[in-house]
Amino acid sequence: MAAATVSLSTCSVQQPRAIAQRLHMLFHLTAVLAILYYRFTNLIYGDVPTLPWGFITLSELIFSFIWFLTQAFRWRPVVRTVSLHNLPDDDELPRVDVFICTADPSKEPTVEVMNTVLSAMGLDYPSDKVAVYLSDDGGAPSTLYAIEEACCFAKGWLPFCRKYGIKNRCPEMFFSTYGHDELLFRSQEFEVDEENMKGWPEFRILYVQLAYERFKENVEQRTNGASAVNDREPHIVIIHDNRKSGRNEENQVQMPLLVYVSREKRPSLPHRFKAGALNTLLRVSGVLSNAPYMLVLDCDMYCNEPTSVKQAMCFHLDPKLSSSLAFVQYPQIFYNVSQKDIYDGQARSAYKTKYQGMDGIGGTICSGTGYYLKKKALYTCPNQQDEHLLHPEERFGGSRKFIDSLKSRYLLHTRGWKSVYLYPNRPCFLGCTTIDMKDAMVQLMKWSSGLLQVGLSRFNPLVYGASRMSILQTMCYAYFMYTPLLAIAFLLYGTIPQFCLLKGVAFGDTIVTWWNEQRIFFIKCISALLFGCADVMMKSLGVAKANFRLTNKVVDKEKMEKYENGKFDFEGAKMFMIPMTFMVLFNVVCFLGGVKRVIHNGNLEEMFGQVFMSWITLIYSYPILKGLVPSGSKGFPSIQEFKVLLPYDCSILDSGDSYDCSTLDS
């Protein structure tokens, strides 16, 4: 009974982060509504060019719509952990099938594919409960040769990794500069062998490395110039059959079942790309291994953490989750991301914000690789009896409908299935990100096309999904599917104002009007609004009494002239200007000192944000800077007055006198 209550996983809500994000939503929503109000009122009642203004309003509606959808990700972010030591014994663990898909040896190097296969074969899991399937949609004979060579190399590679506790079981990475940290790693058994055998472990590393170099050279020679065969018969080969050898046989290297699959392809028949390949692997694995769970990997996404399968089982076997859990998703992390990352290969906003946010509201989206899926979820709904699996073709249609990119994985959530997202300290899977504009654009175009296609179909989340999922989860899926619409908004923003500039059409108010609005808003916030906050606080504490202050309505000729000439009149506003004066002097000192330090250290790239903010503050404060220069101007506190008035800056709050602040609005 005690064992049944042992926790295999934990889920913690990031409460401070959630509260901060909800407050940010509120403030941002106010700004968005203000912008839309401004646009629509001017479009309907204002004297603006209707067509250009309408296009800009449309673009801002799209921006606002996408922004609104993204707020669902920020509502309830969670973090999950696992307890591997609470898992049952190896004999009680379920079987797992690993599906790896490759399509074209000319674009996906065969050596890289074989490294992914070898890393999957090295998963820290009972070998007789793992089956690795390679789908070769290219049908190249060289790929079959390569996987046979990889199987031979694995007979020396896998025992080496298990004996010395090697975590990075992708040989290419282990022997490269990326694996230098692990080459320095010395397990206790390694040190004992090194002491007893006088350097034999070091020699063994060199021996294994030479074996890998020989394997790599053979594969590269055979696959040089290989291309896909798009008209072929199906071909299935069991490379290594672990069903014929028991786990306890002596002198027998324990390896998973390894199968090569090349499905039939005809130019005149649709093959449904990766979805079709996965469906073929489902049918083949159902005959050979029939595991209840499967891991899906892209051919360039190798296993970096051998315990990933056990970490996933901590969720799939957790009594609190297992009945409704469809899949466990890991982040896509890339080993070749540059420091500048100009193509955003890290996708931090997705894997560190959006996925964690979706996990807290019903389950994250499936990224297409690096996930452990319960096969039953493809055929049934949660808590449905297993007899429905006996005739899936009759109940659920053709197998091509089981896995169809994002659509089917999205439909899992509409049927009531849940998913979890695990972001461990050590990446469980590492891949290779795009390093040129063409590949980055092609990849994004492929994703956005598929997403938008589902979003515009009868399965769109706003109609079909809203009645089957929570509103927050619906918003998350809608964000992914409708994000491509941002292209329309950016195109409008990038062409309409510029076209109006070319044609000489005034697009709203002048730049001078806009500048004056920004400047006075800044001054008001630091002066009048600050004193307003202080006034409320002092009244609530009983320090000041409530009073009614009138503004001066008398029109003075001299003041009017200054106003019409665009000159600030600070007369009678000395107290209000004390905070501004202090801030301006502080900015002058910081700006001059900071620029000197930046020039000396040569770190403008790092400090540009601070320099720019200080500079723009000084630009906004130019009227105050001008007032600090002795010129006989009235109303502005000099440096000497500033020192004297500072102790009394709050006296205005409980004074009944009326101060002339109307000039601040000029």
From TrEMBL:
Q: Which UniProt keywords apply?
A: Cell wall biogenesis/degradation, Glycosyltransferase, Membrane, Transferase, Transmembrane, Transmembrane helix
* Amino-acid positions noted as binding UDP-alpha-D-glucose in the UniProt annotation, renumbered to this chain: K107, E108, D137
Gene Ontology CC: endomembrane system; membrane
The beginning of the lineage is: Eukaryota, Viridiplantae, Streptophyta, Embryophyta, Tracheophyta
Molecular function, one GO term: cellulose synthase (UDP-forming) activity
A Pfam family of the record is Cellulose_synt
Where does the record say this protein resides?
Endomembrane system
Report the principal subcellular site: membrane
The residues that the entry says bind Mn(2+) are: K274, D298
Q: Which InterPro entries match?
A: Cellulose_synth, Nucleotide-diphossugar_trans
Know the name of this protein? Answer: Cellulose synthase
Task: Identify the species of origin.
Answer: Cynara cardunculus var. scolymus
Q: Which residues cross the membrane?
A: 25-45, 51-70, 477-499, 576-595, 607-625
Q: How does it sit in the membrane?
A: Multi-pass membrane protein
Cross-referenced SUPFAM superfamilies, in alphabetical order? Nucleotide-diphospho-sugar transferases (SSF53448)
List, in alphabetical order, the GO biological process terms annotated in this UniProt record: cell wall organization; cellulose biosynthetic process
